[in-house]
């Protein structure tokens, strides 16, 4: 959302960002990009964090009598609804997931009461929003079920400038990968991201394609499981600054999106999908959410949660350089024609402008 906000600001749109104190890197608070940041203080206790965030955000947002309020996620849509109630301003929610489904899938929520409260929050947020902006079309049925009427799809974008180049040699030298084939996953390691299935596929890939390493860039709760199952076929880099990611993608022959969410309404079209496309590398992705519809023409698509199918598709690409080059070129072209951040920012501004001007 900050990427959208920065580009909106360049186009002359006044943007205010209300950010929760528990998750703000100092550089984001003090970044000199023209976005006016307001910190919502959050009580760092499980039972009080969300209520305190809502209250603090409401206090921060009331003085901002702007054209429209845009909430990120359905849970923060409650804040937008309250601001609308007090100020009469139009509200929109940018929806990337069914938040309650996501928390259930992560094992965070097991209480029936919490789940019911979560469903109620989602329902009230969506029903009170004047506009729903969906990350991908696969979320539309979920929003319709909650009573949404006006839905616009605006995906994340590809950072074409940043990912058009990368220092592959630096990474291959650092991790002793010279002369080897490299398969890479870059992203979070939570269950719905599916990296654990690539971990299980890694020994199969290494056996079928000797001289291949599967590299995991990122961190998360399932990393110990992945390290155990990947064994010597895996390389674990851990978290790296976003500015280093282009180098890791450039050093790779094949990139993998192994997502396997438990709910069809947990979107997997994260920024890494579009970064992969922008890098010009061949991609293997699982057939979940809106992946096939959004980027299927530039990827090999396999069933989710199936290490054997994942290993087979990766092996096909490792053994066919022409296919790798072709898919990489398709991905780069798709990123430029359909997922350019500038084009998507213009679409988002158009949607918000129409909302603000609607009677």
Summarize the structure.
About 45% of the residues lie in helices and about 15% in strands. The protein has about 350 residues and is of the alpha/beta class.
- Residue stretches low in confidence (pLDDT < 50, at least 5 long) are none
Structural class of the secondary elements? Answer: alpha/beta
Any idea of the CATH class of the largest domain?
Alpha Beta
What is CATH's topology name of the largest domain? Rossmann fold
Report how far apart the termini are.
26 Å
Q: Number of folding domains?
A: 2
Rg over alpha carbons: 21 Å
Major beta sheet summary? 6 strands, parallel
CATH superfamily of the largest domain: Glycogen Phosphorylase B
Can you count the helices? 17
The multimeric state of the shown protein is single chain
Q: If strands are numbered along the chain, what order do they take across the biggest sheet?
A: 9-8-7-10-11-12
Describe the structure in your own words.
There is one protein chain. The protein has two domains: 2-157 and 340-357, Glycogen Phosphorylase B (Rossmann fold, 3-Layer(aba) Sandwich), CATH 3.40.50; 160-338, Glycogen Phosphorylase B (Rossmann fold, 3-Layer(aba) Sandwich), CATH 3.40.50. It has 359 residues and is of the alpha/beta class. The protein is 47% helix and 16% strand. It has a six-stranded parallel sheet with strand order 9-8-7-10-11-12, with helices on both faces. It has a four-stranded parallel sheet with strand order 3-4-5-6, sandwiched between helices.
